[in-house]
Amino acid sequence: MYVAVKGGERAIDNAHAFLAEERRGDPAIAVLTVPQIREQLRLAVNRVMAEGSLYDPDLAALAIKQARGDLIEAVFLIRAYRTTLPRHGFSSPVETAQMHMTRRISATFKDAPGGQILGPTFDYTHRLLDFRLAADGDVPPAPTAPATQGPVPHITGFLNRDGLIETADRDDTPPPDLTREPIELPADRALRLQAITRGDEGFILSLAYSTQRGYGRTHAFVGELRIGMVEVEMDIPELGFAICIGEVELTECETVNQFKGSKTEPPQFTRGYGLTFGQTERKAIAMSLVDRALRWKELGEDFTGAPAQDEEFVLMHADNVQATGFLEHIKLPHYVDFQSELELIRKLRAEAAAASQKEAAE
Amino acid sequence: MPSSHPQDPDRKSWMSLLARAPADRLASLFPDPLPDHTLLRAPEIGSVMVQGRIGGTGAPFNLGEMTVTRCSLRLTDGTVGHAYVQGRDRTHALRAATMDALMQTDAAPALRPTLDTLAAEETARRTTRAAKAAATKVDFFTMVRGEDK
User: Fold this and answer.
1) Does the beta carbon of A56 lie under 8 angstroms from any beta carbon of chain B?
2) What kind and span of H or E run contains B97?
3) Alpha carbon distance A147, B132 (integer Å)
4) Best residue in A42, A59, A116, A243 to probe B by mutation, most B CBs within 10 Å?
5) Are A94 and B52 in contact (CB under 8 A)?
6) Among candidates A275, A316, A110, which has minimal Cα distance to B57?
7) ipTM of the complex
8) Contact B51 A94 (CB under 8 A)
9) Could you tell me what percentage of chain A is helix, strand and coil, using 3-state DSSP and rounding each to the nearest 5?
10) Distances from the Cα of A214 to the Cαs of A145, A256, A284, B112, in angstroms?
11) Which residues in chain B have Cβ-Cβ distances shorter than 8 Å to A102?
12) Number of other CB atoms surrounding residue A281 within 10 Å
């Protein structure tokens, strides 16, 4: 039973004022601007866009500022804002083969056509704190080299030629949308990918790591990882044709996995797929491993009881806004619930005491 | 599919360019005052669900949304312009819809240089990024191996 109580209004107002002051920090230090966050904390912005499931770098930067750098709180703010927006429609599926790439690597093919392009990566840095960053901000411009023109084909396409890897055949089935209909299990692969791409990076990372350690092992290699800008097209009802409505930065990962073959399929490589907003490669790689682990039934593999194979476990716990909402609500007033628990405990103790007295008397 | 047959491929190209153009750059190239018009749909901020394909080429899935502002208007001569532009800048959508309408009128030749400038600047931005990426391309070389006798 819920009992309405009033009170605490002044305390709440003052708490919010205190929060605002703490957010600002020492007024002697220059205030942080939203464009500074957008430009200089770009990977945080990317993570908030990916998990907030809304591509808008300025909004994500504002959310990070408002949330004092708490990225899950920032994701929550973005999700809440998103619900206020009318849906203008849905895009045509993006063509990642047409990506304007800033990074593209393959761990399986050294001489992949198009080459190995490292891009702005932390890989091969020494992970030593750079104290120069604490001092000055100027950096020399990055070197340039003549770029090859035109789209770079996907690496899995080269394996496909020999029939050594499963194909991803074109299909235009309209996908389910978990922002419109609650997730129903069993989920198809399209729904799983939507849930994973907006899922918590830490959770998806840990699940992917668990498969590497043997819990639902799929032995993945990164066939290709590419990062860059992709144009988004949408059919415009007023016009009767599609136009480009903008461009988004995406990270795409395709894994190549061992597969012994089944009753219907010959031994061949199989694939896991990851696609995420922004430069978010840890998430995209993890996504492709979890995607592959969840495909055990479709590929006729054994269910070993591994968490990463368990669709319900993965999909129902991946969303950090849902998770933190349910987790953190237990700190909010539960006075009445607790009062009833207290009465129950007292009653049980009284009964237990009475029973032991009676036993002693007998 | 209607999308494969735009009545005017040129129109598709300028609408797309205007959607991708930085809002402040468009404002400086095509400043106020805008020509007289009636708003058929005032600039409206909303979202578009972006889809990807499984494995890059397979069945579609919902990747996440992006912010998009749309606007429709009619010039005094009756020409209708539409815009769907990325982001939440209402003036961007208003300007793009106005440009779309004007590009269907006799004013088109005068506006061409503006579109050409936006296109050239976009190409320059892309080329610069591609050149920086190209500089990080790995040149492999094989070390002398000792085991072959």
Assistant:
1) yes
2) helix B90-102
3) 8
4) A243
5) yes
6) A275
7) 0.92
8) yes
9) 40, 15, 45
10) 43, 17, 20, 61
11) 129, 132-133
12) 25
Q: Does A160 touch chain B (CB under 8 A)?
A: no
* Closest Cβ–Cβ partner in B16, B46, B133 for A101: B133
**Of residues A55, A144, A169, nearest to B50 (C-beta):** A55
Question: How high is the pLDDT of residue B144?
Answer: 67
Give pLDDT tens digits for B12-71.
999 999 999 999 999 999 999 999 999 999 999 999 999 999 999 999 999 999 999 999
Give residue for tokens 């991803």: A168
Answer whether B7's CB lies under 8 Å from A240's CB: yes
**Cα(A239)–Cα(A245) distance, integer angstroms:** 13
Chain B residues inside the 8 Å CB shell of A240: 2, 6-7
The CA distance from A84 to the nearest CA of chain B, in Å, is: 8
Question: Which residue in B84, B87, B138 is closest to A116 by CB distance?
Answer: B138
Pair of tokens at residue B42: 């005032």
- Phi–psi pair at A93, nearest 5 degrees: -55, 135
- Among A197, A172, A358, A324, which residue's Cα sits nearest to residue A273? A197
Domain spans, chain A: 9-82, 96-120+151-169+176-324
Instruction: Specify whether the CB–CB gap between A320 and A203 falls below 8 A.
Output: yes
A143 CB neighbours in chain B (<8 A) are: 132, 135
Over residues A80-119, the pLDDT tens digits come to 999 999 999 999 999 999 999 999 999 988 888 888 999 9
Q: Which of A119, A177, A241 sits opposite B7 (nearest CB)?
A: A241
Which residues, 6 or more positions from A212, have their beta carbon under 8 angstroms from its beta carbon?
A: A220, A289
DSSP string, B24-67: HHHHHHSPSPPPPEEEEEEEEEEEEEEEEEGGGTSSEEEEEEEE
CB contact under 8 A, A247 and B20: yes
d(CA A326, CA B13): 47
Beta bridge partners of A275: A252
Q: Residues A214-262: pLDDT tens digits?
A: 999 888 999 999 999 999 999 998 899 999 999 999 999 999 998 777 7
**CB within 8 Å: B86 and A246:** yes
Q: How many CB pairs (< 8 A) connect A and B? A: 249
Q: How far is B140 from chain A (nearest CA, A)?
A: 8
Residues in chain B: 149
In the sheet with A100-105, reading across from the earlier edge strand, the strands are: A100-105, A220-236, A241-257, A270-277
